[in-house]
Specification:
The protein is built from 7 helices and no strands. The chain is an all-alpha fold. The protein has one domain.
């Protein structure tokens, strides 16, 4: 059907009606699974936390997950070092908003620290 549509061998209205009917008939459960899968496949990896948080929030809204599950998914997908630091604080964050806020704060400081370490290492090497 999609190939016929691209080749203009079928009218758009007919194809759209067919696809809507197909989605209505078979799409309900799959859509939920896709939303959940989207949330489970994103990870921070080497990205800055702001970028990860933005993508996480976008996908989380679509997933319709509740607060506690979102926090668990967020913790599982973020940078391990930042997660450990947040879990070791006296009062760890409990809401997804606080996790995002605190993680952003720690990520910025961690990256600043990394840059400073690199600067000091290069300075030391240049003296030798």
């Amino acid at each position: 059907m999609l190939e016929d549509l691209e080749l203009e061998e079928v009218e758009f209205g007919l194809a759209e009606k067919f696809l809507l009917e197909l989605k209505r008939e078979f799409g309900g459960e799959d859509e939920e699974l896709v939303k959940v899968a989207d949330l489970k496949k994103i990870e921070q990896e080497g990205r800055m936390i702001e970028e990860f948080v933005q993508e996480f929030r976008k996908v989380a809204r679509k997933s319709e997950y509740k607060e506690r599950v979102l926090v668990e998914e967020f913790k599982r997908k973020m940078n391990v070092m930042i997660r450990r630091k947040l879990m070791e604080v006296k009062r760890p964050p409990t809401s997804i908003e606080k996790w995002c806020k605190y993680a952003t704060h720690l990520d910025k400081h961690w990256r600043k620290s990394q840059r400073e370490e690199e600067r000091l290492r290069k300075r030391k090497e240049s003296r030798n």
